Amino acid sequence: MAAASFSSATATATGISPTSKPLEKSPSSFSLFSSKSPSFNPTQSSPPPKIPLKISSKNPISDVISASDSYPDPQVSSFDDDEDEKPREECGVVGIYGDPEASRLCYLALHALQHRGQEGAGIVVATPDGILKSVTGVGLVSEVFNESKLDQLPGDNAIGHVRYSTAGQSMLKNVQPFVAGYRFGRVGVAHNGNVVNYQTLRHELEENGSIFGTTSDTEVVLHLIAISKQRPFFLRIVEACEKLKGAYSMVFITEDKLVAVRDPHGFRPLVMGRRSNGAVVFASETCALDLIEATYEREVNPGEVLVVDKDGIQSQCLMPHPEPKSCIFEHIYFSLPNSIVFGMSVYESRRKFGEILATEAPVDCDVVIAVPDSGVVAALGYAAKAGVPFQQGLIRSHYVGRTFIEPSQRIRDFGVKLKLSPVRAVLEGKRVVVVDDSIVRGTTSSKIVRLLKEAGAKEVHMRIASPPIIASCYYGVDTPSPEELISNKMNVEEIREFIGSDSLAFLGFDSLKKMLGGNSGKFCYACFSGDYPVEPSGKVKTVGDFVDDGLNGSVESVDAGWLHGSKDENGKYADVDVGYEQGRKVVV
Question: What is the distance between the alpha carbons of residues 169 and 150, in angstroms, rounded to a whole number?
């Protein structure tokens, strides 16, 4: 069998639905809680300790330190606990066809999508002589690219990618876009999402002689294209995608074509726009179109393949697709407020979330503040509905790296204090409502509450602009295992006691769906309900590119990046299971 030759370049006040069988416990339905409720000892159910992973911000490739090692200088602090408190979007993609400055426009569009991934970036262009050239690197877009590197990428067509890595640091071999050569030429791909049957597909390909150069599920797609006998090119993509299960929004580039594909459920966003010179642009969010002065035209539909070449744009149906199940967390947290995602304004969604909280979970207060930046719009909605002034009670620093030198006398909540500074003039003696987008483990929320009270807040009332997160995501979002999710272990009152607030309320699950109206059935709520539109099989990576991703720790720490999927009638995990033999992964 032919194999591709490979080069690398995320309580409601009214209650929530019960969880599905895989989850051991669901949060009970509670009304708004106050500190007068029965006490709870949070130490009895504290989250399990994380394997520490120290990262140097200077040289992210060579300076990764093993989980079993320690820093030579104990004053160096790592902020992994605080950074991991929020769900993470895996990546963002861009595709541009028909513009003489394609690589520069791609660079700017990736900059607009930087919030979707900060660990690595890359661009592939089709040069005028039909060669695919790539520049990839570890770091921010502005760190990977400069004038001289963009000069090396001439051509009218380009694709780009920004990437987030959850553990260790991004190894260069895993930074996209990927480029592969096969019998019909070369192809580049940039992927946002997570293929839940990746392990099964990879095993089948390896059994038939395919050799993999990365640990990314994206590489499987290239191998499937390489072995396809379909022609023309887009039919090879269709045949490859028919074998994939899970979430994928992808852009492909060949010497003369650009292809955009979205999975049949439409988990991850992908939009199309056009510049005034006729150039066609694809991007994960409309904010990327805005920066490069491209006009938003429409979404790439779930299950659609769009082929752009000299003959124009062709639309093909990938396969019969079910009702869309787009990720609701794009509107809660991931996307920028100025983006239109899944045909809806992100700003308007978050403002309405805040209004609902003010209506369903009111409290006497003097001021409304937000946890910046993602809580700001919901806080504005809450304040307007409640008739209470919104003020900046927390100021966010955007210049903090992954590590920092701490003084010898340890500072409590050091990581949070570096990133968030309370404004005493706003808080002192006040009853404060603080609005945040979500609570994951609860550790950062507890530190924020303590920070506000130390700054003189008389009362702190937490309002969360999403339902409680009780389940992990399999579709390209970095969320902890269910055992680490505080809402999967505690009810709302127990969480309130744990974080130390005077009251706590979540956006109601039913209220969220009511707000979405006729579109409510088109969203995926698996992280709130445990009901998965596509059930994973075998062992599935919880995030995009975890395994062997610069993590120089034990095999057990690598294996921790996988979750078991469904079991067969004999009680065994379906499809392929994986074991380890003397540090080597083997199929068992």
Answer: 24
325 C-beta neighbours (distance < 10 Å), count: 23
Residue 308's alpha-carbon distances to 314, 315, 408, 501, in angstroms, are: 7, 9, 59, 54
Lookup result for tokens 């929320």: 445
Tell me the C-alpha distance between 539 and 587, whole Å.
11
Nearest partner of 269 among 480, 90, 7, 21, judged by Cα:
90
Query: In 10 A of CB 115, how many CB atoms?
Result: 17
H helix and E strand count, the chain = 19, 33
Torsion of CA 267, 273, 279, 280, to 10 degrees: 30
SS3 of residue 410 by DSSP: coil
User: Do the beta carbons of residue 153 and residue 123 sit within 8 Å?
Assistant: yes
Q: Are 253 and 187 in contact (CB under 8 A)?
A: yes
Q: What is the pTM of this model?
A: 0.77
Give 369-378 pLDDT, tens digit per residue. Answer: 999 998 999 9
- Three-class SS of residue 326? strand
Whose CA is closest to 420, among 385, 465, 451?
A: 451
How does DSSP classify residue 173?
G
Q: Is 91 a catalytic residue?
A: yes
The residue from 91, 287, 327, 524 that is catalytic is 91
pLDDT digits (tens, 9 = 90+) for 270-306: 999 999 999 999 999 999 999 999 999 999 999 999 9
Q: Which two tokens stand for residue 29?
A: 């339905």
